[in-house]
Write a structure and sequence with these properties.
By secondary structure, the protein is α+β, with helices and mostly antiparallel strands. It has helices at 6-12, 16-25, 77-87, 99-105, and strands spanning 31-36, 41-47, 51-57, 62-67, 110-113.
Length: 115
């Protein structure tokens, strides 16, 4: 099982521009709700120019992540931003991942590996 670290996030990012954009997204004031499912899935609802639902498995080296944004980059800045919140020590409350999150972002989900 991989531990989520800044180095892991850097390897997971598609490019440096995405990582830089993710740093702006990793502002807790921009998140309507955040949660950490008992299985290790981080999830949240981000409010920027639009509102997006995001989830990422932060406890598994083979991660399933998704976002309802239209970005073609995978992972997008929202997924990376959520991960940055976690490694930055922002408290993310223990909450079950809502079923509608998975349904909502299913078409935008992707599989990736950070090992």
């Amino acid at each position: 099982m991989a531990t989520l670290t800044l180095d892991v996030i850097k390897r997971f990012a598609p490019d440096n521009k995405s990582l830089k954009s993710a740093q702006e997204v990793a502002d807790p004031r921009k998140w309507k709700v955040l949660g950490s499912d008992p299985d290790g899935t981080l999830w949240g609802e981000y409010s920027g120019s639009s509102t997006y639902s995001i989830y990422v498995s932060a406890s598994s080296p083979s991660s399933r992540s998704g976002c309802s944004c239209p970005s073609r980059k995978r992972p997008c800045k929202h997924v990376l931003g959520l991960m940055l919140l976690e490694v930055g020590g922002h408290p993310i409350p223990a909450k079950k991942l809502p079923d509608y999150f998975v349904d909502e972002v299913n078409s935008a989900s992707y599989e990736s590996t950070w090992e």
